Structures are given as C-alpha cells and as structure tokens.
Amino acid sequence: MKFEGTYVAMVTPFDENKQIDEEGFRSNINYLIDQGVDGLVGAGTTGESATLNHEEHQKVIEILVDEVDGRVEAIAGTGSNATSEALSLTKFAADAGADGALLITPYYNKPQQHALVDHYSTIAAACDIPIIAYNVPSRTGSDIAVETAVELAKVEGIEAIKEASGSVDKVSDIYRALSREGLEDDFNILSGEDSLTLPLMAVGATGVISASANIDARRMVLMVNSILNDDYTRAMELHYEMVDLIRALFIESNPVPVKTAMNLMGLPAGPFRQPLCEMKEDNLEILKKALKESDLI
C-alpha cells in the first residue's frame, strides 16, 4: 500500500462530561473528507489516546471506519508501550476494517534498536494490516535510527514510517539508505512535523500526517498535492501562508491549541482530559491572531 498525500491526525471530541462525542466525531470526519484529504487517523496522539481506555480506543476506531466507509483511507492509532496491548489494538483495527495502523514506538520503556524491530515485527506477523511506524522521540524517549528504519522496511506488512524527529537530515538519510537497498518505492516516509512537510517531501517523504489539518485541511491538501505534482513554487507560497498558524497550533502541547482553535471555529472538539488543560491567556491571544489572519475565525 502506498501511503501518499494528506492524512489528518484527528482530535477526539468530548462532550461536557468529557465523554466521546460520537456525533461530533462523525461530523468532523465528513468535514475533513469534504476538504479533500487522503486519509484520517483516529486515536493517535492528537486524539488524546493516552487518556482513552481500551474500550474507548476501540470505539474511536469503529466510528472512524464506519463513517469513512471507504471514501478515504481510515488509519487507526494502535500503539502502546506494551507490545501485547499494541498487538491487541492492531488486531482489533484489522478486524474492524481499518486501512492501516499507526504505531508509536513504545514510550517510557526505551527499547533497544533491535527490540524496536522485534516489537514491530511481532505485530506485523500477527496482523493482516499495513503498519506505519511512528517515530516521535520528543514524546517517547526512543528514536528509530536510520538503520532501524531500513530493517523495518524489510519486514512484510510494515509499509511506512511517520517521522517526527524534527530533522530534515534524518529523513534525507532514511530515504538515501532505502534507495541503496532498492526499497524507496516500497516503503513510504510521512512527515510528522507540519511545519517541515515541504522540506521533508523535497527529500523523499510522500505526504504528511498532520494535526494542523484539523484546522486548515484545504491549504495543507493544496500544498501536499502541489509538491506531488512538482509545483514547488505554489507549494512554497502555501507553506508561508500556513507557517504562522502552524506555529501557533503548537505553542502549547498538542492537541491543546488545535482543540481550542476548533472550538473557536465552531467545530466539535470540546474540553480536554487531564492532565491537559486550557491554554494560558497570552498564548490564546497568539492563537486567535493567527486564526484571524488565516481567515478561519
């Protein structure tokens, strides 16, 4: 499976009791599909997966697959710091009909590089679903090395990596290493850093899994499609149109600014689950200014 284009790391909207707002989630799915996205990711970091219990996690995946109904790719976040739990969630996603599974590297445990290969290989061998490894060392304390990414690319069923290490050099090195092994067409790299999507795609990434696209999917889709069509002039224009908004959306821990922006725009988002809480007032003003300048509020 070729993972290419714009995927949205969706928020999980909550009602006033901080329970999953199913109607709001379905509404957001349809809104984003109408914006032209290529895929939607549910129950990932932006979806506050860390505070979803197992039953809620499965519910989000079920709603996503049901509402998408084959119109775009439905990707389930199924990672965990326990291989057994990640395996259980990935099997559930496969049985539910998801098109792929996004698995963050086990957090806190800090597994060795060969242990990361074993972790992902164990799940890929047991689950009939394309797997995207998710590398975000700032959150997990674990970084997938270039050589490890190449080893993962050789494992049947592991089809891509979401790279959020914040390094253009890292993605460049991964792509070059894949090319040396003849794997560059069989294993995709997806940007996990919204503000770096343009440069990461310039050195080999094929798309983005974007949190900011919850807010401005239209322009993210236009930029990514421009890059895929080798129109870097237009892509650069769109990058600079979005960059201040993207920075404002990460001024505090994701997804706090994103959910705040959605609430300001009248999109279903609702409150946060602790330990996340409302934004500081000065940061909120920066976010509001960026939204106004982008004609979103």
Report a brief summary of the structure.
By secondary structure, this protein is α/β, with parallel strands linked by helices. Helix content is 48%, strand content 13%. The protein has a single domain (5-235, 268-273), classed as TIM Barrel, CATH 3.20.20.
Could you describe the 3D structure shown?
The chain is of the alpha/beta class. The protein has a single domain, classed as TIM Barrel. Helix content is 48%, strand content 13%. It is built from 12 helices and 8 strands. The chain has helices at 22-34, 54-68, 83-96, 113-126, 137-140, 146-153, 168-180, 197-202, 213-228, 232-249, 256-265, 281-293; strands at 5-9, 39-42, 73-77, 100-104, 131-135, 158-163, 188-191, 207-210. Strands 1-2-3-4-5-6-7-8 form an 8-stranded parallel β-barrel, surrounded by 7 helices.
**Helix and strand succession?**
EHEHEHEHEHHEHEHEHHHH
The share of residues in helices is: 40-55%
* Terminal residue distance: 37 Å
**Secondary structure tally: strands:** 8
The CATH topology is given as TIM Barrel
In percent terms, what proportion of residues is strand?
5-15%
How many domain regions? 1
In spatial order, strands of the major sheet run 1-2-3-4-5-6-7-8
Number of helices: 12
> Which second-level CATH architecture applies?
Alpha-Beta Barrel
- Quaternary structure: single chain
What profile does the largest beta sheet have? 8 strands, parallel, barrel
The CATH homologous superfamily corresponds to: Aldolase class I
CATH class: Alpha Beta
In round numbers, the mean pLDDT is 97
**Unreliable sequence segments:** none
SS-based class:
alpha/beta
Shape verdict: globular
Radius of gyration: 18 Å
